[in-house]
Amino acid sequence: MLAQLPDGFTTLVTGAGGGIGRAAVDALLASPRPGRVIGVSRRPGPRDDARFESLDADLTTPEGREILVDYLDGTPLHLTFNTIGTLHDETLGIHPEKKLDDLDAEAMAHLFHVNATTPALLLQTLQSSLKGRHPALVASLSARVGSIEDNRLGGWYAYRASKAAHNMLMRTAAVELRRLNPTLTVVCLHPGTTDTELSRPFQARVPKHKLFTPEFVAERLLAVLGERELGGAASFHDWAGDAVAW
Ligand SMILES: NC(=O)c1ccc[n+]([C@@H]2O[C@H](COP(=O)([O-])OP(=O)(O)OC[C@H]3O[C@@H](n4cnc5c(N)ncnc54)[C@H](OP(=O)(O)O)[C@@H]3O)[C@@H](O)[C@H]2O)c1
User: Which protein residue's CA is at the shortest distance from atom 42 of ligand 1?
Assistant: First the structure.
């Protein structure tokens, strides 16, 4: 697993209480290679593994990011695996838009905040842990619907646009972060449709073989990350390892 990273590498998984985040923590702990796996979540859960550290923080808030930066205290991070993201929110009455008439400024601002601004502010927060000469991979979950070139179906305005913004912010940060650490490599990842809370209301029309388990996706995404050359330009890859058009 992740042969570019040293034995005993340190990993940060954000959104560790979500479907893919939880599975990523499990997949990492199933390998002897990581030395520390730090999971950050608004609903942290323990694991029966001394290498796992659970942090209770909401990284969409300044207070949550402050908790994280204090906790890390400049610890070098080898793998940052951000899985925070949202598509719908029943409590806020947010559903993906089908047409222009469905657009709502507050709903759009919420999706942009969680899907684009938060991952960028996370990288801002992590600078002291990313800088240096240690091998560093930064992965952040995007979505193929965020590909501008690939957009033929339309719909899902806020989610698509927030993921496109996510990708631009990750690619922009990659240019700057490589000055802080020449090995640092940023990868935006499309997991494929995965059986989690996020996709649940939209699974009916997904053929069974195209609906992946979080466990499969976590294994695949870590394998895809393992194929990335350190120090390369930011990229956008799917679960199969294929490049996705920006
Ligand atoms: N599932 C799919 O089919 C699919 C397809 C394409 C892309 N993706 C992307 O993959 C990533 C992971 O998604 P998932 O399927 O694992 O979804 P999920 O089970 O809903 O997990 C997403 C996690 O993001 C964090 N989060 C979401 N809304 C938040 C909010 N308002 N405030 C603070 N934290 C919030 C939460 O982390 P905590 O609970 O740990 O705090 C949540 O558990 C997302 O970026 C998603 O856009 C998923």
Answer: 18
